[in-house]
Amino acid sequence: MPRLRSALCCALLLSLAGCAGAYLRGERLYSQGDVAGALSAWRDIPPSSAEYPRAKLRLETIERELASSLARYEKRAAFFEDEGRLSEAVLYYRLALKLDPDRPQTLARTQSLYRELRAREAEERANLSAALAAGSLREANEAVKRLQRLDPFDPAIQIELRQVRAETGAQVLRFLEDGKRAYAAGDRDGARVAFERVLALDAENEAALGYLSYIKRDDAQVADQAKPAEPRQPRAARLPPPSVSSEEIIAEGRFRSGQTAEEMGDPYRAIREY
Fold it and tell me: Using a CB cutoff of 8 Å and minimum separation of 24, what contacts does 178-187 make?
């Protein structure tokens, strides 16, 4: 009989030690980011264990956190999917699956979205190659922007983006120089064409905006001063005001950019430009 009681006591002590070990193992797994493993460890603790109340409390807390995180991840995934930001959508669906792998609908959606992401990336890369081959930097910029929107994490896309931006920047500088030379020579039409080409590639270029604003202002002043009986002064003979500095040109461009931002409902950019 004493031996039996001793055996029972030993078994009870081992059981208690095992439950305590299970609880601590769950805490360790949770601290390592293995939420599913932690939940499994705590759920294995029987109601007869002294650790059961602690485990039950932890389970209730973590399950509430889990449900909240799952809902948040899937809402973010759905938002990014609607915005066409597919790589970010896939990321958040995968985070939801990491918290709860037993979600077949989420898994199916993730796989489908990943296939769509790769197909659209291949399509946009073909558009980018065609635009570059045709020398159309404007279309190349649009294609690379769409690629970046699809997957901002892909290093290859970042390299393509930098290459297109470098080519665009060089072209913008060439058009700017053409416009400045035409403006200095009094060729308003030639200057206008060159600066409009700049804006086609860089819509917020302050220098081009500033020059175009001065060209428009000068044309308006000449139109007001011209007499109806007299022929209008040829554009090529109208020289730029000698008092206009490069700083004034840039300031005028920033002012126009701020106005545009304000009209488009972007007050932060408007304040920055002003």
Answer: 179/208, 179/211, 180/211, 183/211, 183/215, 183/240, 184/240, 185/236, 186/235, 186/236, 186/237, 186/238, 186/239, 186/240, 187/235, 187/236
CB atoms within 10 A of CB 76: 17
For the chain, helix, strand, coil in percent to 5 are 80, 0, 20
- The residue-averaged pLDDT of 213-234 equals 64
Q: How many CA atoms lie within 13 A of 150 on its CB side?
A: 24
* Residue 8 pLDDT grade (very low, low, confident, very high; cuts 50, 70, 90): very low
Dist CA 156 CA 125 (whole Å): 11
Residue 23 CA: distances (Å) to CA of 35, 69, 89, 133, 269: 13, 23, 35, 63, 54
Q: How confident is the model at residue 230 (pLDDT cuts 50, 70, 90)?
A: low
Do residues 49 and 15 touch, judged by C-beta distance below 8 A? yes
**DSSP-assigned letters across all residues of 45-59:** S-TTSTTHHHHHHHH
* pTM beyond cutoff 0.85: no
Residue 165 has pLDDT above 70, yes or no: yes
Among 22, 52, 26, CA closest to 39: 26
